[in-house]
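Usage

Read records sequentially. Each one opens with the input sequence:
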Amino acid sequence: MKILNITKFNFEFSGGVEKEAREVSRQLSRENIVENICFGDNSLVSKLNESEKIIQFKSYRIFNKVDVSLSQFLFILRNHKKYDLIWVHYPNILPVLSLVLCINSPKIVLHWHNDIQVLPSLYKVFKIFETLIIRRAVKIITTSPEYYKYSNAISLFGDKVHCIPIKIKQGNTIIKRNIPDYSKKIILTTIGRYTPYKGYKELIEEIRKYKNLWLNIISKSKFPSEISDSISNSSNIIHFNNASDSQIDDILRNSHIYIMSSLSRNEGYGIVLLEALRCGLPLCVNKVVGTGSAFIVKPGMNGEYFEFLVENSLINSITKIMHPGKYEKYCANAVADFNERFKLEKSNDYYSFIQNLSK
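and closes with the structure output:
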């Protein structure tokens, strides 16, 4: 079978969607030919191995949000009949526009990573095409059952939905074995690029209140001056903007809790939460209904929720995790939960899915 796997950017891009698109291609190419197409700064064709190829189209960004490429648009129109299956990692506007124009297109699988939540005026127009591609898709893959239930776009198409949670490689686990010295600082770490929905501004404002807390922010992003000034004026917050992999390992090894402060459903899943569990770090996550974190976090077991709008919620959740005699259990549960639910070595999910679909 010949498969077209459509993602937004090249697999070398550090985004969660691209990581998962790479895994889809890797599993499906075991017994199939997979061609991957994406956007990039230039056009290129690269053969990954005998059964995988990536075709990158030079794109231009409009409204600072949407990538467009006439070459990619025409490629899909001209070549869609060559494939037995088209796998679309969503949201990705341009491929959808071209696919709905394809007559007698092959089977389409929509891999639903996120709802479109930017440029609402543009979305009102695009929603027509979104509905058409949802109706045409034979299956819609979601990364968590919670995200699907709260999606206005796909909640009514439950008969098509198939949930495949994201998993990651085991790597080197870092397990906390000793009870921390509670007379010293409790070290929190968060990782990710800057965007307003990540909640960095709110998190920094909250952490500054508590001198017994220390926050590490690992991000290659350049923060707005307001946030940079807040970090500079805080004695208990540090921004690592150029940390190497070994430095990140050291930071995680010496942290007590992994914290995620995302404010909205733009955070569709949160792969960093799996990376934290893998390291034996309990999770402390801002509660947002209908996201993947609701599937990942198990209060009282591998972490706790907090809510920015509830007074003392953050410090209460941290205190609960760090309770003497309980902290080690949170850490052990984090690793055990990772091994049970999120370890990639156990996963043949996409391979099995495609086998069943072909039947």
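Summary fields computed downstream for this record:
- Residues 235 and 247 are 21 Å apart (CA to CA).
- The first strand starts at residue 2 and ends at 9.
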